[in-house]
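Section 3.1: Structural characterization of target chains.
Under the original work plan, the team committed to producing a structural model for every single-chain target entering the pipeline before any wet-lab resources were allocated. The record below documents one such target. The sequence was received from the expression subgroup and is listed exactly as submitted; it comprises 568 residues.
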Amino acid sequence: MHHYLINYIKNNNIIRIAAILILIYLYCSVFNPFFYNAKGYALFCMQAYNLALNAAFICLCIKIRYVGLPIFIATGIYFGLLSYIHREFGYSLSNELIFATFETTTEESSAFITVYSVLFFILYIIFTIFVFYSVRFLIPNHFFKTRKHKLFYYAITAATYVGLYFLPSIIFHKLPWEDKTIPDKIVRELSAEHYKWMPFFDVPNQRAPYEAFTRTYRTPHGEFSILISGIKDYFEEINLVNTASYPSTCELQKDDELIVILVIGESVRADHMGLNGYHRNTTPKLKNTPGIIPLTRMYSYGGSTEFSFRSIMTGLTRENEQISRTSFVPILQLHHFHCSYYAENAANMCNSRHMKPVIGNFLNEGEIVKGTIVKTAGAISDKILNNKERRKFVIIQNGIGHYPYAHEKKYSIFSPSKHHTKKDDAQRTGLLNDYDNCIVAADDFLHAIITAVKDKKTILLYCSDHGELLGEDNKWNHGDPQNPYLRHVAAFVWMSDSYKAQYPQIAQEFLKIKDKPLVHGQFYATILKLCGIKTTAPLNIGDFFEDDIRNHENNLPQQIRDSIENEK
């Protein structure tokens, strides 16, 4: 019976073609996260195109001798990874995700390796192999009777695949984009739902946005170009100008003492910060600390740590995204500042591939400090206080808050905590409790640092590298550079009594701008100003006090720009 059914399917062309189409349709459904993300005519166009593209790809792979199966399995794993990150976290491939992957530590990556994720990939591989052998079994053997027939088959399938791959680019590229009636029609009839929110034609002289459509139609094959581009950008050598080569002056006297501390937080959203009026008191100690001024409207450069570090350390903006100079550290050292960096239970971002020549190579001291919150804060404080230099600039990378939101049990103020119960409800109660408990832990860490240096002439700036998605629009974690939840980050400034006594005007200026929109790129000029340094080095954007981000509108996503446009 079994052999009879197989022979019947194989000898009936209609059933055989139908079976092949069903297998390819299932393949597209599994590996293309946008396969059902449209309606009406758009859904028909997308699925028909995707079926044709994948059919050509599968048919080409299954008849390439020896290497066809490895190629198909390798692409299946890659497509499966893209599908997994989209279904699990709501993300598409981007440069920020590629860079974040390269810079992810073993500790961070272990959080993503779960029983669920391993089972997920095993099933993907099994399904890929099943589709490969099933389609190969169903394709008629008479195509391959002679070498001539084989070459003809390869040529046709390869030409079909290449032609289909570039077809959307050809079609959308030729559309008359200057016609204002075109966008609504295309978005309504041809575009996937995923792209309907994009303000394609709101910005004057914006280039034709056909890339968004071609990427949607070609997914996941279209991600290859993004992957290659991202890897190329990551390994590209950068040419830097040493900022210390520009003339600069410092108003500090020879024996003046000053400690400037920059704390870069991890994944802390502004709207979950107790200092900003969050309904939960996630910052119980900082709220009762004199001298703190919340900066309620700080916006990050992007949605990942690497890209945020670039902006903070070099003044990078979205208007000028090319790293072209070293950080402010060489300038500080020129004026006798001892520059150190301490990473608290986190990767040393100053030694990443692009940040090492920007800042890591110039630091007087750099170290990863591990341990409990109290011990780590104490160790870092001791290093700051025991340093006999009178001028000190200190960077502290605070790693508390990264997914999966692990924290010491004593900080489980909000319960139940997902981290401890391993369960959650539909309202994500455990996840939100876990995340907020991390901010409570960060509050304890920051308070300990401030307490240690309060008797010194000190100013401390705190800013998170990016925010975090906690299920909004079915998205999780971080890495999306355009998402407002990731771009609006927690920030504050603290000044000791002796600092305010000597620099009362600085305290007054911070009070004036506490609700002013600010961005990461302004830290560069602001830190130099706080250190009393004036430089002739070119800046992409000025400091917090003298420049206004509303004059640099392209630095923020459209949704954020709309919210502040009327304030200009």
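The radius of gyration is 28 Å.
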